[in-house]
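User: Fold this; tokens only.

Assistant: Input:
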Amino acid sequence: MKCEICGREANSQFCEFHKKAYENLVEKYEAWNKALKITWTEYLKEILRNPNAGLWVKEVAKQMLSHESPKE
């Protein structure tokens, strides 16, 4: 199996690097949501705009946004 983002070998949808980035996104969302009351989609968009966010996290956020179904 290959990583959906970079094509590296993977045991799931993401390689070890993008999987860790995904886990970090999920883990940190709770704190962001508690502080800012934002949705998951808004959070992912904020990550993409954040100059301090790492490349792998941004790649995962972009991938997740591109696979979301339209809301409302």
